[in-house]
Amino acid sequence: MIHNKTISELSRGLAAGEYSSVELTTHFLKRIENLDSNYNSYITVTAEQALNEAQAADARRAAGNATPWTGVPFAHKDIFCTQGVRTTCGSRMLENFIPPYDSTVAANFKQHGAVCLGKTNMDEFAMGSSNETSYYGRVTNPWGTDLVPGGSSGGSAAAVAARLAPGATATDTGGSIRQPAALCGLTGIKPTYGRVSRLGMIAFASSLDQGGTLTRTAEDSAMMLNVMASYDPKDSTCIDRDVPDYTATLNQSLKGLKIGLPAEFFSEHLDPEMQTQVQNAIRELEKLGATLKEIRLPHSHLSVPAYYVIAPAECSANLSRFDGVRYGYRCDNPQDLQDLYLRSRSEGFGDEVKRRILIGTYALSAGYYDAYYRKAQQVRRLIKQDFDNAFGEVDIIAGPTSPSPAFAFGSKGNDPVKMYLEDIFTISTNLAGLPGMSVPAGMIGGLPIGMQLIGNYFDEARLLNAGHQFQQVTDWHTKAPSGIDA
Amino acid sequence: MAITRGDVEKIAHLARLQVSESQIDKLTGDLSNILSLVDELQAVDTTGILPMSHPLDAQQRLRADIITEENHRDEFQRIAPATENGLYLVPKVIE
Question: What is the ipTM of this complex?
Answer without folding.
Answer: 0.94
